[in-house]
Amino acid sequence: MTEQSNHPGRGRLRDPEVLLSILDKLPSSIFVKDEDLNFVYSNDLHCAMIGQSEGALLGKCDADFYPEENAKAFLANDRAVIDSGKTSIVEENAISAAGVTTPVLTRKARLDAPDGKTYLIGSNTDLTEIKKREDQYKVLTETVPVGIVQIREDGHIVFSNPLFIAYCGGDVSGDAGLRVIEKLQETHPHFPGQACRFETDIQGLGGEPRAVIVISSGWLRVGGDVRSAIISVVDVSAMTELRRVNAEISRLNRELAENVKKLKEAQDELIKKGKMEQLGQLTATVAHELRNPLGAVRTSAYLLERKLKNHNLGVEAQFERINNGINRCDNTITQLLDFSRTRSLNCQLGNFDEWLAQIIQDEVPKLPASVTVTLSLGLDDAHIPFDPARLQRAVVNLLSNASEAMVGVAGGSKVMTGDHRLSVSTKRDGGGIAISFSDNGPGMSPDVLQRIREPLFTTKSFGTGLGIPAVEQIVVQHGGRLDVTSAPGEGATFVIWLPDEQKHDAA
Amino acid sequence: MTRKLNILVVDDDAANAESLAELFQMDDHRVIIAYDGQQAVEAFSLNKVDVGFFDVMMPNKNGVDSFMEIKAEHPEARIYFMTGYSADDLIQKAVAGGALGVFSKPVDLSRLLKAVESEAA
Questions:
Q1: What is the nearest CA distance from B55 to chain A, expressed in angstroms?
Q2: Which pLDDT does position A299 carry in this prediction?
Q3: What is the 3-state secondary structure (H, E, C) of A444-486?
Q4: What is the pLDDT of residues A32-90, one digit of tens each?
Q5: What tens digit of pLDDT does each residue of A228-281 get?
Q6: Mutation choice for B interface testing from A283, A288, A299, A362 by most B CBs within 10 A
Q7: Given strand A481-486, what is the order of strands in its sheet?
Q8: Long-range pairs, A500-505, Cβ under 8 A, ≥24
Q9: What SS3 state is found at A187?
Q10: How far is CA A236 from CA A144, A191, A198, A210, A249, in A?
Q11: CA-to-CA separations, A410 to A326, A327, A403, A492, in angstroms, rounded
């Protein structure tokens, strides 16, 4: 006290009036009681809080102003402070004479004053604002859609809001919380000491796993000496689900587009098939109607030729033209039938090389003499399923196509002599067989090559333009394909590829 | 010396039937003409037929049905078919039922005459 009284500032405050005016202006209510716990001083704020003037207060005790229960408690507390000399700090509610309750922090201490007497000095700090903020804070932490936990560096959970507790399976003991924190530490090496943010799954006791974003503040000093981290846990399960649903919708959309495309293709195919069926019926009828009179013409021409044989009329050339005309008509009808026939195949398992050798042997004599056909068989008695009648048409078409490309037909402009070579070969290829027809004719420009599969496309002054489309039609019906390679001056190669096994769909 | 045959030509197309008849007659064979399947069946029961050449698609009764009927009565009957386009199912039925062969129209006459020759041999 001696040292303090030497302080220059204290000297000026020795004036009691100044001191009392300061006490009146303090934002705390201050009171002093004597040893009997009667008021000996009350500053303005204390008077206002109780709702009495200082004059009304002095010499009175709490029992004169507060309800009996409250007064008893206050006085007992006062007495304890006086007796023990220990300072008391308590939160309590002060109720004024007008019945207004105010939350206050009350500090009380015993003062052994220089006048030899013992006093109780007390102060009340109005906690209304702090309480209001505390309530706001409580509501905030209870309603924010984020799990919040504060964990100290020593591993002690200082605080966790209800949502975090719920995320941990509703266990309020804190053990579940610690287990969740440990799990998160395994996920992220710097968690929670360093500020970080990551996405993971958590699963509390018996709880559903949920996708969350975890955010840690890293170690901070939040009051006290031990550092702690504030961890926020945001449930993004809904968002994850949304993302998944979104991805699923995208996938379905792609699938839908793909299906629409397939449907369109199937529709086109169906339309084409319908048209082909119509064409097939029409062609069959026309073929029948044309071939009967053609037969009669052929037989009659033959009879006429025989009857005129020994009359030296010089009509051989005319008969040849008649017969060539009949043959051309017949070939055209055959090609139309080949192209338009959509009936299902009549496949049999057969020795392909053997079958092909027989066809070549039968057909080669019908080709111009200048065409040399070489046959190279490489299937080693392989048996594959095919429709012999239909495939024969494909082979015959390719033979005559190659022959016509190299030689031309009677009456055509191409040279009838020369080195016309057609090489036919078979080999195994992938899950099937390849039959190749290579000629040394003039070849095709890329432009022609590109259009060769189009029905009715022809570079010849004669012909239906259905030969190659018919071949392709037959081969595709077998589940195979027709490949064509050619360049001007380099001949052409047609390759029929047929699968080892027939797909049993509607061919 | 080849023997002379009784040949049955069946075709609803008269020009065809008659020109073929004339062709066979040139080689001194005897020819009977039927213009539909029903007539063919009757012709077979009324005549001794050595070989028949039947069209397939005809009114009243198609060639294959009349062939099946004839075969039932005369299992030894020797019959070839001639067709404008292959009515696949019918042709298969005929071949399975014992038809000797199928000529596609317009008939290749050298093959046809060879067939007759072999029947006459």
A1: 10
A2: 94
A3: CCHHHHHHCCCCCCCCCCCCCCCHHHHHHHHHHHCCCEEEEEE
A4: 999 999 999 999 888 888 888 888 889 998 888 877 887 888 889 899 999 999 999 98
A5: 999 999 988 878 788 888 899 999 999 989 998 898 888 888 888 778 778 888
A6: A299
A7: A371-376, A420-429, A432-439, A492-499, A481-486
A8: A500/A384, A500/A431, A500/A432, A500/A433, A501/A385, A501/A431, A502/A345, A502/A347, A502/A385, A502/A478, A503/A479
A9: helix
A10: 14, 19, 12, 8, 19
A11: 14, 12, 12, 21
pLDDT: which is higher, A439 or A126: A439
pLDDT at A215 over 60: yes
Cα distance between residue A120 and residue A31, in whole Å:
8
**Percent of chain A residues topping a pLDDT of 70:** 91
* CA distance between the termini of chain A: 117
**Taking 60 as the threshold, does the pLDDT of residue A413 lie above it?**
no
Give CB contacts under 8 A, 24+ apart, made by A26-32.
A27/A125, A27/A126, A28/A123, A28/A124, A28/A125, A28/A126, A29/A104, A29/A123, A29/A124, A29/A126, A30/A121, A30/A122, A30/A123, A31/A121, A31/A122, A31/A123, A31/A124, A32/A111, A32/A119, A32/A120, A32/A121, A32/A122
The CA distances from residue A125 to A30, A48, A102, A140, in Å, are 9, 13, 10, 25
Query: Closest-CA residue in chain B for A298?
Result: B106
Q: Residue B16: its pLDDT value, please? A: 93
In this structure, is the dihedral angle defined by the CA atoms of residues B2, B6, B9 and B14, taken in order, positive or negative? positive
Tell which residue, A245, A228, A244, has the closest CA to residue A193.
A228
Q: Which amino acid does the sequence have at A443?
A: G
Task: Inspect the interface and report whether the beta carbons of B106 and A297 lie closer than 8 Å.
Answer: yes
Over 90: is that where the pLDDT of A375 sits? yes
B109:A299 CB<8 A: yes
Residues of A in contact with B7 (CB under 8 A): none
SS3 state at A75:
helix
> Looking at beta carbons, which residues of chain B come within 8 Å of A319?
none
Beta strands A481-486 and A492-499 are antiparallel
Q: How far apart are CA A158 and CA A181, in angstroms?
A: 13
- Token look-up 């399947």 returns B37
pLDDT above 50 (res A3): no
Q: What is the pLDDT of residue A12?
A: 64
Confirm whether pTM is higher than 0.80.
no
- Residues of chain B contacting A295 with CB distance shorter than 8 Å: 13, 16, 19, 82, 84, 105-107
Q: What six digits make up the tokens of A447?
A: 């432009």
Q: Give me the helix-helix angle, B37-46 and B63-73, nearest 10°.
A: 20
pLDDT digits (tens, 9 = 90+) for A385-395: 999 988 999 99
